[in-house]
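User: Here's a chain of 381 residues. Predict its fold as tokens.
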Amino acid sequence: MNLLKRHFAHWLLGLFVLIASTTAQAHTQSVGYLTFFVTPNGVTAEWHLALRDLEDAVGLDANDDGVITWGELLSRQQAVNAYALSRLHVQLDGVPATLRATELLVDSHSDGAYAVVRMAVDGAKNPTTLQVNYNAFFDIDPKHRGLFRLESGGSTRLAVFSPENPSQIFDLSSTAPQMSFLTFVREGVWHIWSGYDHILFLFALLLPGALRRREGTWQPVPTVRPAVINVLKVVTAFTAAHSITLSLATLGLVHLPTRLVESAIAASVVVAAANNIVPFFAERGWMVAFGFGLLHGFGFANALRDLGLQHGQLAATLFGFNLGVEIGQLAIVAVFLPVALSMRTLLFYRRFLLQAGSVAIACVASTWLAERVFDFKWLPF
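Assistant: Prediction complete.
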């Protein structure tokens, strides 16, 4: 067993050396940044669209060398503008407005290069309502999110567009937040439920929650109480670590390259699942949850930081998002724990669900890791 642990430690070290040394881009969350500016002189907009998303939508890499140059983007300016204008519709005071692309620029966000399409909005003067319909990339990537910022009357309001919520109306006569807090609570829940790597990481940690390690094997806990305590320790540790790095990264106090974060998250799932097969960390699952939870916290932080929020708004947004993450996790635990407790004495649970399930999780996560390190896509999720 000690020999296996030493081999496991060497494998783990090699894994992270590989991640840190690679120069490939990881697959990241698809995000667009849309800002509307409402002033007495009129309405303008600025839309930041990831070059990697535009490559999938309209094609930018003319020579197919994996690098999109400024010249290649300019050569496709008409196609980029046409795509943007066809996927964004606006009404001012209930009347459709006309969007005109006025300038094409390039900007850099934490996850890569973005095309910046600046637009003029022709319509009602001094409008009191603004309706925005956002439909970019949803047909290519249902997990795409449009992070929206409205600058009007000296205040900033936030919203998130998704396939389930592509159209929203904003009252320009009010400076209230207009439910942005609840919006980010919902996004926190969505972040957990739609993040398959987060879910598999949790399952890998929770699978042995109703068991204990005795005489080299996993055995059922004698009573419910220690299992509940163990699971709560795991969830609390993961939430605390996730919240710490999410906050630090969003505030700009800590920054890690996106490719490193995404690859390391996949690696954390592999390690958590492998620990169920060759118990390197034994029953210290909460320590694994905390350690790797620090990595998972970077998963959405880049997008929040790139919104450029003021500290007051940032605090509310962070709190709402973290609350949503906690709600999403507790919902998973509420479904999983009763099942695990009721089946913990069965050999089927210890041999099949724990062992075979962990092998399956490790295989999926290993594929994600390879995809993110070597920049290819094989799995559909």
